[in-house]
Design a protein that fits this description.
single chain, 166 residues, alpha+beta, PH-domain like, 2 domains, five-stranded antiparallel beta sheet, 3 helices, 8 strands, 42% helix, elongated, DUF2244 domain-containing protein, DUF2244_TM, membrane
Length: 166
């Protein structure tokens, strides 16, 4: 799963979430090499002909476009969410694409974890509400992962509330 509960803190817990990436760096190199080979293959038929010079810009623009599109997608999915649950506060920090950072903090006794079966941007949308603000968490996860996350978050919040009450 693209999230993990990290080592328990002395007075709480930490959750680290990230989007799933199906294309690794090694996979990107392989994909681009195969694409280059397949685009170059038809050029062999016109090698030594003036037609090659007419086709060459289109080949190069195609390769550059594929390179740019995949790299841009990888940069746009550089999202990391860190949730820290403690007896005195719940904090969520979202590190988004291009260095964008968003922070949220609330008292754990007033935080509600909600699962929106419909009506959200994705099915089974998970949000946390507290301090007059509602924030999403794990929207990039799969539907099953969001359902599991909702249960785990609710359970972890219950533990934090109980431990801080004593």
């Amino acid at each position: 799963m693209p999230y993990e509960w990290q080592k328990e803190l002395s007075d709480g817990a930490r959750l680290h979430l990230w989007p799933h990436r199906s294309l690794t760096q090694r996979g990107f190199v392989g994909f681009f090499a195969i694409t280059f080979g397949l685009i170059t293959l038809p050029a062999l038929a016109v090698l030594g002909s003036p037609v090659l010079w007419g086709l060459l810009p289109f080949f190069l623009v195609t390769l550059a476009g594929i390179w740019y599109a995949i790299r841009r997608n990888q940069r746009d999915t550089e999202i990391i969410e860190d949730l820290v649950l403690r007896g005195d506060a719940v904090t969520l920090t979202r590190h988004g694409p291009r260095g964008r950072r968003q922070d949220w903090r609330a008292n754990p006794h007033w935080v509600r974890v909600m699962l929106h079966r419909s009506g959200g941007p994705v099915p089974n949308y998970v949000t946390m509400k507290g301090e007059g603000r509602e924030v999403e968490i794990g929207a990039f996860l799969s539907e099953d992962e969001r359902i599991a996350l909702h249960g785990e978050l609710a359970e972890a919040l219950t533990r934090i509330r109980q431990s801080s009450a004593h």
